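Quick start: what a row looks like.
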Amino acid sequence: MSQSPETIVKMKETIKTAIHGKDDVIDMVLCAVFAKGHILLEDIPGVGKTTLVTALAKVMNLDYKRMQFTPDVLPSDVSGFTMFDKAKNEFTFKEGAVYTNLFLADEINRTSPKTQSALLEVMEEGHATVDGVTRYLPTPFMVIATQNPIGASGTQKLPESQLDRFMVRLSMGYPSHESERIISRDDILAYQNEVENIKIKDSLYDYAVSLTEATRNSDTFSLGLSPRGSIALIRMTKAHAFLSGRDYVIPEDFKAVFYAIGNHRVILSTKAKACGMNLESALNVAFDSVKVP
């Protein structure tokens, strides 16, 4: 592997100065970044999520923007719009908030479904089409979206199809202060390319499919992992192997990331709830039901 282990370790240690006692969450965040995924954070308001994103952006030397997703935010605020410039006597394009490397969509479940869809489309495609013109976003591009716990004032649940666009769902806790810059955006792009080249045996591809099928074929879940979930599982295991200093995936990588990629994609059945199961225990049962290759 061509990445510098010292740089990776230093990056992780620096982020830990902003997020105390959350080593496993930091690993999942970095895995998602290097796997070219987006992150959904579910936390109560006011726990320092903006400070966290500022720290990540500074450590990774990325431009970032933050948008508060209030009910009056429009899709054009996200993706941009064209307007007539009288001075130039022509239409000009005004960039939306997503034209950046790291975009913090704060309290995404407080805005309208139409605005949510505008962001989620950009996340999926990596570009925005406004008035018939397609404009590509900067690279790398990633979204960290936060949502308040369901049931909080003014919130509405994200549909399962939209939740599926996020690679992982995490709860971050309480970051305290910013970090120093230690890598560049070119490093991030290089690391993402290296993650794509991490080796994985055919038997482990089968293992990934079997794990997702375990959630679909069980009466514990009324909704199991989607094909997008299978892809996220593979990409996250590669990123976990990368962060662990390996250029190949091992079964332990699946165990490390399975809950993070699955907890927002599955829905517990009524039977499972009646038996006192929660998402974590149900996903653990599904994971343990599949034989390790």
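That is the whole record. The chain has two domains: 5-185, 198-288. The longest helix spans residues 227-243.
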